[in-house]
Design a protein that fits this description.
The protein is α/β, with parallel strands linked by helices. It is 25% helix and 22% strand.
Length: 412
């Protein structure tokens, strides 16, 4: 089995195939595995950083399966219960939304656990987001009020990387059903420490290598040849190479690469940016691992042992902004959030122009399934029809799905 792409989707597919006893060759055009979930040493900071801050939740089953399969021993960081801390940059007010572990959400009946200034009635319309069907979120609920502004909008913006009001209600419902809908025990935030690579990528690469599969790097798939209903040739830049009659191919590449290789493929073609700021600064004692910021430019602040990082989702408006201006703005907000006064430390700004597909109803409808019209070609990636937004969980599930379909085609 050949896999093009060694992001989390491709690695997930490779692990599932190896578990089934199938030989795998996997390659990626980049200099390292991991795709958008990559970690690297940044010379400006002299630190290992992630390209972005990717959050998972305690109830993500594919995350748990993948990490267990590859022996990722170091636990993900995060609170024991579903607690989301916030700070209003302008007013300095802080609060914690604290959900109970069980499915029955009795936390909304406790003023001390819910969004300040909210009443029980403010939460009831949100049940409309759980209803089946597709459409814009703002066609189902009014995007206003304390619960929306201080909890739902920040959480959905992070999950969808698209303005929540214009986002797909089907994707929002999927996120909410699998997290808040299952209770706080499934909603605890989990952060990769010390890096994404250490939590996901390195253990998978090492696990595959121990089983005879090395990830080929700097190898770009440039063309695919077909013979009737099957892939027959792959060109990695040195000319066409034949694909054996019983060999399958999994294409785990970004959608713009997939559509270039498969011109008749319908896939998302509208994307949203993410901007991250990283600062070489040891957080003050007691700084929460994750803090939601309201009223500023940065939206989430992450405290690592050796650095502070902020994330801005749906950040197209910031892509062309001056990097130092962004760094100073972010740092001022970090100081306000943590209640400190410190000069700007060494910093790095990372911009991902096409971080995810736009999670709108129109783009969601363009997501293809894992199977294709060629019997030995399968698709994987968080942009395929996983039912979830472009998340780590969705990427891992897509790899599992592609592997399962590929396994079914193998001779018995």
């Amino acid at each position: 089995m050949t896999i093009a792409g060694a992001g989390l989707a491709g690695l997930s597919a490779a692990v599932a195939l190896k578990q089934a006893g199938i030989a795998v060759a996997i390659a990626d055009s980049a200099a390292q595995a991991g795709g958008r979930c990559r970690s690297y040493h940044d010379p400006q900071l002299d630190l290992m950083i992630d390209n972005g801050n990717h959050l998972v939740l305690s109830g993500n089953p594919a995350v748990a399966r993948f990490r267990a399969a590859v022996g990722a021993a170091r636990p993900l960081a995060g609170p024991d219960h579903a607690e989301f801390r916030f700070r209003d940059i302008a007013s300095g007010a802080g609060w914690t939304v604290s959900m109970n572990d069980g499915r029955l959400p009795w936390w909304i009946f406790r003023p001390s656990r819910r969004v300040p200034g909210s009443g029980l009635a403010d939460y009831l319309p949100l049940a409309k987001l759980l209803a089946p069907g597709e459409g814009r979120i703002d066609a189902r609920v009014r995007p206003e009020g304390p619960v929306w502004e201080r909890l739902i909008a920040p959480v959905l913006l992070a999950a969808l990387n698209t303005d929540p009001a214009e986002s797909s209600s089907a994707l929002a419902a999927a996120v909410l059903r699998e997290t808040i809908g299952r209770g706080g025990a499934a909603t605890c935030p989990r952060i990769a420490e010390p890096t994404l690579a250490a939590a996901f990528v390195d253990p998978a690469v090492a696990w595959l290598a121990a089983r005879g599969t090395d990830v080929g790097l700097g190898r770009r798939l440039r063309a695919i040849g077909f013979d009737g209903d099957r892939v027959s040739l792959l060109d990695w830049g040195s000319g066409p190479e034949p694909v054996a009659p019983d060999e399958g191919v999994i294409l785990a590449v970004p959608p713009w690469v997939a559509t270039a290789l498969l011109p008749d493929l319908t896939a998302p073609d509208d994307f949203r940016a993410i901007v991250n700021g990283h600062f070489a600064f040891v957080p003050p004692p007691g700084a929460p691992p994750m803090l939601g910021l309201i009223g500023g430019t940065a939206e989430w602040l992450f405290a690592f042992a050796d650095r502070a990082s902020v994330t801005v989702s749906a950040a197209d408006r910031l892509i062309d902004a001056d990097r130092e201006t962004l760094a100073r703005r972010f740092w001022a907000e970090i100081c306000a959030a943590w209640g400190i006064d410190a000069p700007l430390p060494r910093w790095q700004i990372v911009k991902e122009k096409r971080a995810t597909f736009a999670a709108t109803p129109e783009q969601n409808a363009k997501r293809p399934g894992a199977a294709t019209r060629w019997r030995n070609l399968f698709l994987a990636g968080d942009w395929t029809a996983t039912g979830l937004p472009a998340t780590i969980e969705g990427a891992l599930r897509s790899g599992e799905t592609a592997a399962r379909l590929a396994i079914a085609t193998q001779p018995r």
